[in-house]
Amino acid sequence: MQKKSSEGPEEAELTERIPAASKEAVSFLSLIGKKEIQPCLFEESLVAISESGETIGTFSISVKWACYSLDGWQEEDCFLVLANSKGTIDGVTCKISLTGYISKKLEILEQRIQESMRLRDHPVETRTKVVKRHGQLYLTKTIVEKDEEINVSTFSYRCAQLEGLVSESANFLILRVMARRQSLPQNATFLSFDSDQHICTSTYNNLGFQKQKVKKEDVDVFVIERTVHAVEAPPLNWQFYFLPDGHLSRRVQVGSPATMVILQMPILIDIDEPDPRPVFEKVPLDWEEDAELYSKFLDRKEELQASHATYVRRHPELNTLLADFLQLLLLRKPDDVVTFAAEFFAPFSSQQPPCRSFRSSDKPSPFRSYV
């Protein structure tokens, strides 16, 4: 990892040891497929409640399909994650917005986080950008006070060192997958960014099921605890409470005076399972013994006989033609009756060119094969 800072006259460069994710975490990420992610693509919103029960802000998350292109180069399908948080605590307005593009393998493509805080007339804003390019992750962290950049830090990491990395964008999707499974991998140790954009480890723990009251209804929620073990700061800890379909019902950050909760039950997402094809046993059918089927058979038989008789009456030439054929057939008595019939009726075909009714004996017939 390389770091460059604008704080001093010279650019500082340092190398830090990159931790490793657990094999179980890497395997977990590799086995998440499109079919499992599809029901996790939805929008949701919560409200921030203070310790006194007052509504002090909002929190929203949206995950959907998108298309990503870096500098107009080749596009690729990806997931777009949008998250926004806004609240006022002790008279201080805080806003956090996240925009992230992650690949179908849940790898970061680009991520922007903007955190702003207004202390009376002194606004402070922190902007963090991460972009993947040519096998490298480039990070830029900018601190702005009163519209003036006072500090810019840049980092770069080789992607080959970051197997098992879970960005903040991917974290929302991974949590939903875990919630729908209602299980976590053993020893779930991933890589993450801490608040200073250093690579650190993050862990997920299964806290089991709890009861949560939504309005007047008690619902079962699955609780997941996430801890980011920062390099130079105390660990950051969150607890996420999920409904069975992956909707977030509550979020608690340890040490924060605000709790995110839903005000009403959302419409749960249900995956339609195709009904199994019915299997019918084969039952022997004797239609002659079935009065209904036998009656239909007689009706159809009479209908066909009447239709055929009508057709023959309308075409008297049919009797003459068949009589001529039978007379010639009995005179010639050929061994191959089918070929003889084909040669007899060939002159009447509308698809054959006109020809004489009686061929010469030396002209080959198209209906016979000669060796």
Automatic annotation (TrEMBL):
- Show the coiled coil region(s): none
Keyword Cell inner membrane on this protein? no
| Compartments it resides in | Cell membrane; Cytoplasm, Cytoskeleton; Nucleus
Supply one GO CC term from the record: nucleus
Q: Could you tell me the Gene Ontology terms of the biological process aspect for this record?
A: actin filament polymerization; cilium organization
- Which region ranges are annotated with the description Disordered? 350-371
Ranges where the Ciliogenesis-associated TTC17-interacting protein N-terminal domain occurs: 24-257
Q: Which UniProt key words apply to this protein? A: Cell membrane, Cilium biogenesis/degradation, Cytoplasm, Cytoskeleton, Membrane, Nucleus
Entry's family note: Belongs to the CATIP family.
The job of this chain, per UniProt, is described as: Plays a role in primary ciliogenesis by modulating actin polymerization.
By what name is this protein known? Ciliogenesis-associated TTC17-interacting protein
Species annotation: Pantherophis guttatus
